[in-house]
Amino acid sequence: MSHIGRATEADKRMLRRELLAVRNRLTADDVRESADALAGRALGLPELAHARTVAAYVSVGSEPGTLALLDALRERGVRVLLPALLPDNDLDWGAYAGEGSLVRIQHGGKMALFEPAGERLGPDAVTGADVVLLPGLAVDARGMRLGRGGGSYDRVLTRLERADAHPALVVLLYDSEVVGHVPEEAHDRPVHAVVTPSGVRRFT
Question: Which of 12, 109, 119, 146 has its CA 20 to 30 A from that of 201?
Fold first, then answer.
């Protein structure tokens, strides 16, 4: 890895620590109120209004809450796909059938995740999604997203590219996580929009 690559990785690690420290100070009420506002904003997106299949995820801890949004999409008749983490950090997918269909899975030393209990559809299932909702810690003015560093969604984006699939890429964040600049590496791809509790911002 070049010196620049190492510097970028160190910058990302530092920014992740700062952003996670802010998230960890949020109360359960903060998270719940933000989740309701976030769902309302996201449901107004034309991309989601016309989507038949949406790849999403179940928020954990102090992440911007997604369950209200997942349930609202299901009520609209949208097929919602949720990830299941594989041992190599890649993602398999399963269909969401309501909160009761989720199982809590502890992945080694990592955080416990809520995953779909039903049939696994394979890592390529995401290529059939009209919209992919991405987790993240920040996005900048160009639409560059800072993830948690596990690389799972980098693989998803690569898979979409290889399949020539072009879903709308939307990241869900808190208002303070839309920042001036996110350090980027060669493999990083911009998203199309960010949804926060106070609104939507699009990137060209």
Answer: 12
